[in-house]
Structures are given as C-alpha cells and as structure tokens.
Amino acid sequence: MLAVADVESRYYYEHYAPGRLADFDLILACGDLGRDYLEFLVTMAHCPLFYVPGNHDAGFVERPPEGCVCLDGHVERYGGLRFFGLGGAYRYRPGPYLYTEAEMRRRIRRAWPALLRSGGFDVLVTHAPARHLNDLDTLPHRGFESFNRLLDRYQPRCFVHGHVHLSYGTHLPRRMERGNTTVLNAYEHCVFEL
C-alpha cells in the first residue's frame, strides 16, 4: 500500500515514470493534498484510492477528487481488510474539517452503527494523529484523545495518519508500535504492507 499526506511526493508526481505506481494494491490519502494530485495518483495507479480530508481541504466540500473514495466517517472493505476513516484536525480556527474533541467524539458515535455492522476495522485512516501519539503540544497539531479510545477498543492492525510533518522535528517517528497496532505517519509518502 502507498500512504500519502500533507505534501505532494515529487517522486510520484513531478518525476513520475510510467509503471511507478503499478505495484500498489491500494492508496491511502491522509489529507491536505490537492485534488489534481489525488486524481493523478488514482488514474496512474489503476487501484482504488481511499482518502480523508485534511484541515486545508475546504475545496473538497464543493469539489471532491474524482475517482477517489471518501473514507471520512465510513467503513470500506478492500482486499479482505476493513478501513475506517476520520478526516480533519483539532479546531484552531473556523472552517470545515476542524473539530473540537467533543465534536470528534460525536462523529465517532455517529459511525458506531457502521462499525458494529462491519465488526470493527483493521486500518484506521485519519488526518490528525492521536493525542500524545505523534502529535505536538501546539493547538493546530494536537491529536484527538478519542482516537486513542478507538485504538484501545478495536485494536486495529494499522493506524495511518498525516498532519504532523516529519520535517517539524527530528524526534518525530515515521513508524511506531502502540500495543498490537502499527502507527504510520504518512507525511509525503510511506510504503507498507499488511
């Protein structure tokens, strides 16, 4: 799988070579990426692209990327895996895809019927990280505590997020483990297998 977030990967876009995306079974986009970029990836890869919106994706309200599947608040099955997505970031200004902790908890509660029907999920895809798990103390880059509760309850195999750029500091890991869950920061691009 290819996960992307926050910054368009020059390797997969500006310097694209035919066949470079051919080996991927699925692309996960974790927010703050341009509509044209996502449409390019899904066209060239010939595999599905699941995405969640980021805090800078206000344009997706009116014009979502074509050919891509919005995972925000939904469970999608693909390749024998269940993917659950939650877009947005911690509210630090007015705008779409920005939520308080209480608002994110309500969004998760609204998704419970879908989570029950699917028997949970194997991969959690978000824009923001979980609180104290790859987040920062600044309000714009704070993670959600409610994501920790989701991880504790469902024990997914993988949690993929964006929002916190690895370029913000050398202490930020690309990959870490939280119990049985592999946590991946998809900043720019990250290739992984499940």
Q: How would you describe this protein?
A:
- This protein is an alpha/beta fold.
- Helices cover 20% and strands 24% of the residues.
- The protein has helices at 35-45, 101-118, 145-154; strands at residues 2-5, 27-29, 49-51, 69-70, 75-78, 81-86, 89-90, 98-99, 123-126, 158-161, 175-178, 181-185, 188-191.
- The strands form three sheets. A six-stranded mixed β-sheet has the order 5-6-9-10-12-11. Strands 4-3-2-1-13 form a five-stranded mixed β-sheet, covered by helices on one side. Strands 7-8 form a two-stranded parallel ribbon.
- Strand 9, helix 3 (145-154) and strand 10 (158-161) form a beta-alpha-beta unit.
- The longest helix has 18 residues, at 101-118.
> Helix/strand-derived class?
alpha/beta
CATH superfamily: Metallo-dependent phosphatases
* CATH arch. level architecture: 4-Layer Sandwich
Q: What's the helical proportion of residues?
A: 10-25%
Give the rounded overall mean pLDDT.
95
Q: Quote the CATH topology.
A: Purple Acid Phosphatase, chain A, domain 2
| Principal-axes shape call | globular
Number of helices: 3
Uncertain segments are none
Order of helices and strands: EEHEEEEEEHEHEEEE
Distance between the termini: 8 Å
Based on DSSP secondary structure assignment, what is the total number of beta strands?
13
Largest sheet: 6 strands, mixed
Number of domains: 1
Radius of gyration: 15 Å
CATH class: Alpha Beta
Spatial strand arrangement across the major sheet: 5-6-9-10-12-11
Beta content comes to 15-25%
